[in-house]
Amino acid sequence: MDAFKLTLSEASRLIHGNELSPSELLESLLQRIDRLEPKLEAWVTIDQEGAIATAERYSKEAAEGKLRGPLHGIPIGVKDIYYTAGMRTTAGSKILSDFTPSYDATVVAKLKEAGAIVLGKTETTEFAAFDPAPTRNPWNTEHTPGGSSSGSAAAVSAGMCPAALGSQTGGSIIRPAAYCGIVGMKPTYGRISRYGVIPVSWSLDHLGTITRTVEDAALLLEVLAGHDPKDTTTSTLSIPPYRRAMDRLSPPRLGLLKKFFHESAHEEVRRNIEEATRRLGTAGAEVVETMLSRSFSAVHAAHRTVMITEAAAYHEETFRSRMKDYRPNLRGMIATGLLVPASTYLKAQRIRSQFIREIRSLLEGFDCLLTPATTTPAPKGMSSTGDPAFNSPWSFCGFPAITIPSGLTKDGLPLGIQLVGHPFDEERLLSVACWCERVLGFGHDPRDPK
Amino acid sequence: MTKELGKDETLNCLLEAASVKWGKAEIREICSAFELAAEAIWKVEEFQLEPEEEPAHPATIFHRGRRGKE
């Protein structure tokens, strides 16, 4: 069995059924990493020794029927902005190159409680902003995998781990997942604790999942979601059993956003969303074109204003003494953020209030909104991680979003659709995404790079 | 700074303030960030909001709307 090909849910089922041991799964993934990592550079740190020792212990436990949780013995990749006790956390930066946290981020602790093995830390753009990581796209190594969750997306896509953690301030989960032909989910702001994760922008940062299937996203979200007293922005709403959403699939009612999203899309992206829409409609979905709200015209500007101001506030002290140690994109972001007038920042937050209200109203009568996931396929070259314009509005309003793969370009690069759901109704979003995933039936994997 | 300023004037204001703070040589390498920021600030300031619209707050963005609307 090529265990590296298993999805998170398949691996979980096999381990729980004693048909696969954590050590067997890990060995297959490590072989995969040995083979592909020199070409893809998805990892900052691989804890081979620690992972092998943990897998051996968990294999014995599994054989005795002692299972720690749904992720027992499954190796997971963690973006290198999450605190991991005893494991270096560099945020892709010179400034933190030697930093080793003494505690785990809340979600890392939750992963471990559920039985997962932290396989290592995945590459990120510097401080999860815009200066690219060295990671390459498994579908074509001349192209970016997107960012900022570059290593997480590349590692999952290439079969180095069945799932990984990402984060999104603009489009840093949805975009790399779409560029790499996999599933990326950004739940509602407040659904997952941000405690112990290095921020870009406190009010825009979302943690989320990168997996190969929607079912896997549901499984991982069940583990990660929930109130955390250490993060006052987390919701106290109860966590439904998300995987059960997969059992209740029915054709959804989708609000198709064409204006801006189709106009700004690359020709192949536009053709792909049109074809996907047609196929979803043929399968029974009710797809209705809907219009963007008034405040949408200011959303990207307001998002940028909030992001650079909060990033500047976070980095201000270090920036004073180590400005040159920041790479140019982040340096520019901080320098400009420090000059944003307080009244402009607050006006951007007022635009956000209006946008949230308008999108809430727009979603009434729909299960989800539907857009392409990205403006283009993964751009060629490593100087940019692509454009988050189709994703940042949903980070700005905090509503949950997910991408699923929906086809390939003529050059063989993956494309995805993006679904945006009601706040704190990830259950419905996952159910709709699973239905769409089955209808679109992507079924491609990248060929191993030579 | 920006209430009555156009996009170019906003950019000039930012560059001037940055030059004083960090020096012209430092700014040259990150010039594109200033263009992006100026455009964002200008668009935000241009956007017409109703006076009663309150800022979103992270802990409450889903629980507080404009007064009297939710």
Task: Report on the architecture of this protein.
The complex is a heterodimer of chains A (450) and B (70). Chain A has two domains: 3-256 and 368-440, Amidase signature (AS) enzymes; 296-362. In chain A, 38% of the residues lie in helices and 14% in strands. Chain A has helices spanning 8-16, 22-40, 48-63, 106-113, 150-157, 174-179, 214-224, 267-282, 296-322, 328-337, 342-363, 392-397, 426-440, and strands at 43-46, 75-79, 117-122, 163-168, 183-186, 206-211, 253-257, 286-290, 368-372, 401-408, 414-420. Chain A has an eleven-stranded mixed beta sheet with strand order 1-3-2-4-6-5-10-11-9-7-8, sandwiched between helices. In chain A, strand 10 and strand 11 form a beta hairpin. The longest helix of chain A is centred in the last third of the chain and has 27 residues, at 296-322. Chain A is globular and about 60 Å long. Chain B is mainly α and 70 residues long. Chain B has a domain at 7-49. Helix content of chain B is 53%, strand content 0%. Chain B contains three helices and no strands. Classes of the chains: A alpha/beta (450), B mainly alpha (70). The A-B interface holds A 188-190, 202-203, 232-233, 235, 295, 297-298, 300-302, 304-305, 308, 323, 328-329, 331-333, 335-341, 344, 346-354, 356-357, 398, 423-424 and B 1-2, 14, 17-18, 21-22, 26-27, 29-34, 36-37, 39-47, 49, 53-59, 61-62, 64-66, 69-70.
